[in-house]
Predict the 3D structure of the following.
Amino acid sequence: YKNQKVVAHNVAPNQSELFVMKPVDTLKTAAGLVGGDRAQQYGDYNVLHQRVADLWSAYLTVEVKPEQVAFCMALLKVARNEVGQTKPDNGIDASAYVALWAAISEDKNA
């Protein structure tokens, strides 16, 4: 899992060389997003995920909980990586959403 160059076969030619991140680097980058830029851009994650849950619940006509929103967003990033271009950003964002899922779940059980 060293930072190494690999060739991806399902991407555009100019994007065929990617760098594989070490797991710890992925998690550090995700933590920086959750506690830094994204937190400043979008505000409190509990408030945001509750609002998204409310919107999804109204649209789907079933109850959606904030922790389900975070987990579904992580799954979206997994699907993007499987169907579209492989990008390190998908793993970073999925890790960030899983961290939010865990935090929201813990907050509700506290």
Remarks:
- The mean pLDDT is 83.
- The chain has four helices and two strands.
